Design the sequence.
């Protein structure tokens, strides 16, 4: 298990540290979504085309922009409310759309642009933007994912499953790298891009999220895993003692909309101890999956834990 405090002592977590200095949850989520370290190094995943992670980094100017936005978040809130959805992936994409619309170094040309063959939908371009620094259009595919290592070795992408076990890392990567990011090479996709004045875009895939290893195992990491990302824990309900007896943290139950940026729980009224954690889970449906933030004595999150059904990954 991760040692206490190592989450925020980890290298390359500037965006996550920044997010804890921001007061508005949506602005914290924006900072995390766009500038936290990606889950995977896209260039190491064997895509048949030259593809990398998003090249837009947290510059001093963007840092200042986020702080200004935090003091007056009205424009962001209006943007999010206009496309409100309870789906976390839609919210994540909407945060990216706002950034690409507001940043002076880029121009958002289109997003969620469908590609069709007659009445059949082939796919969709997540984001098409123009980068002034590179003087090129860019096709950016986005995803936010949370995967648990099922097998003890977890060496293959097929061994990493979502809380809903139908969601698998290998299937997601196959879809993104062999289909979605290659849409511009499809004749129908090229035609759609030509209609908005774009040809031969640079290709970027940005996957954000977290990986969770079983509390009692120390398995291998998937190909391309970004070591700037700390690992987190998961356990089945019957194994909860492996977490609570070894770690005297307080826990913050996370609503799904809190899954993105690290939380600041210094003023949270609903922190619970290990005993209360057991009691809380006893009142929930046995087949459900719950995520908790482990909180240190300063009220800062330092690790997360997923607690899933005893029958997981069976659904």
Sequence:
């Amino acid at each position: 298990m991760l040692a206490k405090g190592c989450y925020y002592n980890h290298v390359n977590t500037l965006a996550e540290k920044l997010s804890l200095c921001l007061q508005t949850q949506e602005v914290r989520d924006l900072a995390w979504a766009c500038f936290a370290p990606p889950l995977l190094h896209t260039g190491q995943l064997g895509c048949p085309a030259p593809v990398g992670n998003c090249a837009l980094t947290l510059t001093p100017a963007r840092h200042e922009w986020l702080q200004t936005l935090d003091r007056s978040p009205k424009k962001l809130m209006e943007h999010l409310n206009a496309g409100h959805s309870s789906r976390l992936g839609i919210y994540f994409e909407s945060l990216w759309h706002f950034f690409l619309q507001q940043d002076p170094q880029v121009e958002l040309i289109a997003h969620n642009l469908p590609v069709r063959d007659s009445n059949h939908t082939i796919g969709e371009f997540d984001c098409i933007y123009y980068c002034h620094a590179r003087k090129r259009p860019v096709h950016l595919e986005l995803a936010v994912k949370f995967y648990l290592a099922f097998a003890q070795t977890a060496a293959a992408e097929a061994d990493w499953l979502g809380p809903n076990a139908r969601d698998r890392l290998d299937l997601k990567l196959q879809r993104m790298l062999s289909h979605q990011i290659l849409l511009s090479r499809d004749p129908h996709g090229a035609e759609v891009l030509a209609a908005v004045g774009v040809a031969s875009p640079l290709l970027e895939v940005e996957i954000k999220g977290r990986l969770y290893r079983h509390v009692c195992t120390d398995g291998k990491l998937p190909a391309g895993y970004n070591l700037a990302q700390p690992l987190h824990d998961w356990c089945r309900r019957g194994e909860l003692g492996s977490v609570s007896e070894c770690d005297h943290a307080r826990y913050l139950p996370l609503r799904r909309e809190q899954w993105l940026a690290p939380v600041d729980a210094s003023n949270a009224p609903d922190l619970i101890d290990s005993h209360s954690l057991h009691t809380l889970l006893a009142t929930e449906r046995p087949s459900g999956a719950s995520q908790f933030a482990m909180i240190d004595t300063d009220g800062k999150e330092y690790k997360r834990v997923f607690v899933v059904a005893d029958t997981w990954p069976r659904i």
Residues 1-12 have pLDDT under 50 and may be disordered. Residues 231-315 form one domain. Strands lie at 106-117, 120-131, 136-149, 160-161, 202-214, 232-236, 250-253, 290-295, 301-308.
